[in-house]
Amino acid sequence: MSYAGLMTHDDQELRLSVQRLARRIRSMQADEDVTEGQRSVMFTLANNGPQTLGSLSEHERVTPPSMNRTINALVDAGLVTRVTATDDARKVRLDLSDSGREFIQETRRRRDAWFTQKLDELAPEERAILDEAEPILRALADK
Asked: Which residue of 4, 42, 87, 109 is most buried, as measured by CB atoms within 10 A?
């Protein structure tokens, strides 16, 4: 059964609003030359620590050859490093470089600043509604 047929107009508007908001937040980043896929990989490394190419491919739901192209671009840009695993010299672990960490920190700073500014522009009643909605939105995101 298709869920799209069950959506009301209001449901669709809510979904579109959440998508537009997420897109606006994602657009706040330290370097405009970094693609969305590259940024996603960098945030995965920042949040989960060093990874193998296979684990990154699985996490990002892309093929290993596609992930290899993404990693090569990030390595060439100096944002990610390849490190031989200490437990197995045949394995290569990928991690953020110092520049990659700076990118993540600056991107988070820009996103937080933008979002804080937008929240500060709301009327107290609107802010209270969002504060009440936050646990519901978090639950939806975690399902």
From this structure: 42
